[in-house]
From TrEMBL, chains A, B, C, D:
It is an enzyme of class 3 (hydrolase). Its cofactor is Zn(2+). Residues 3-132 form the CMP/dCMP-type deaminase domain. Zn(2+) binds at C55, C90, C93. Gene3D superfamilies: Cytidine Deaminase, domain 2. The active site is at E57. Belongs to the cytidine and deoxycytidylate deaminase family. It catalyses: cytidine + H2O + H(+) = uridine + NH4(+); 2'-deoxycytidine + H2O + H(+) = 2'-deoxyuridine + NH4(+). It comes from Lactobacillus porci. This is Cytidine deaminase. It comes from the Bacteria.
């Protein structure tokens, strides 16, 4: 990992303790950095009705939007889980990445052992659905 | 509104500008106060795939959890929308309230004209699903 | 239970076996009847990413819409779970009920022991969010 | 398109009329075929609270599970939208595909003009999250 990635890794690893995961006992955390160098973190937040669960990556991105971050784009997003391989983001989170991150921006998947792998958003969700698709469909 | 409610109303109203709602053009914001007097805010965050949209109330509650807020319970949650009557929280948000807020805790529904109505969480989602239900069902 | 309710109860109880719940081991089923007397069933369908889970009640209502059922309204909806009290519908399902069922229509909550309790949609999700709210908000 | 694909295309195109999409005015439909040759269809089903929206692909897969279809695997899934290019499935639907379809199974993306493109599930959601990941994480 380079210096920025190492900083996000430390932030996310430390943040695992704030995960709310009484149903899966599976802690996940995320940290992102914007172009201006600001950082935001996230944890998974479960619910007794499983469908209302929010993942760590989405918590971090929602945090960034909620802070008025939209004009300061996300440059990279790191995710950490206590898994046997670098954790995989779920499809719902890939969809939210595709809404808010440039196709070529970096997503770093890691585990608590420090293993990691890099993807771009476009590699994680190729041929993704866009605002333009919905406009095309609605105008016909 | 009492003083605490007025403070949450001002916070939430000011925060409407951070709503990400390019699909509905419908801005919603929320603000909550914990027992120790800390405040957290939220906005609605939409997605080109509508099902990945997150509401303002959930953004605020996720923000509080993400900040390690669990030991400092939510005392009241205020929601504001640019509606003709005080805004109604959707069922998904009521479910997340029932996970994290006491049944008797206060939810204040408001609109940009300053009209408001008070509910308890239990009034908004009576006879709610709990962790105990899931344990009962799974152990049989 | 009256005759229609007993028929829905039998349908839903028999349907529990089709639940896909490898993560919670918590089986839920639902059955609904339309004004013309047609019936539709549903089960909970979980996902390794908990947030993509779909509940039984929603599966049944989606089934009805998907079959072109909209012109033939839902008269009553029954839910069954292997719980210690009649099962409670989650907030997300209450929201979908409020979209597709009249406020006074009946929801029967049951468990595998045959205990049951009746609610109206309006009792389960009072002061609910509507299409009108979203139009009001977007037009300002 | 081959014969099976053409049959799914006709089924899905005819089914667009059952879409419930009063908020986006964007109709989507899906059709799938199992190994034994059975077919199931789906439409998008929106909600005034956008986050409760269900996509066409998920409706079709939930339909198949709900019918006890699990022992008869999905061989191919076709999606159609009134778009300017073959429609893209959202990330949430890709996640549900990864739960229920083999990595090499076929997803055919089409539009109402009859344009189409073929993907495998693994191409749509590479390095996907699995039940094994969640077990690894929870057991530590």
């Amino acid at each position: 990992m380079n210096e920025a990635e190492s900083r996000l890794f430390a932030l996310a690893k430390e943040h695992l303790k704030d995960s709310y995961s009484p149903y899966s006992h599976f802690q996940v955390a995320a940290a992102l950095m914007t172009e201006s160098g600001k950082t935001y973190t996230g944890v998974n937040i479960e619910n007794s009705s499983f469908g209302l669960t929010n993942c760590a990556e989405r918590t971090a991105m929602f945090n960034w939007i909620n802070d008025g971050g939209l004009p300061d784009p996300i440059e990279q997003l790191l995710i950490i889980g206590n898994t046997d391989r670098p954790i995989s983001p779920c499809g719902a989170c890939r969809q939210v990445m595709s809404e808010f991150m440039a196709p070529e921006s970096e997503v770093i998947l890691t585990d608590t052992k420090g293993e990691f792998v890099r993807y771009t958003v476009d590699e994680l969700i190729p041929y993704h659905f866009t605002e333009k698709d919905i406009e095309d469909g609605a105008n016909k």
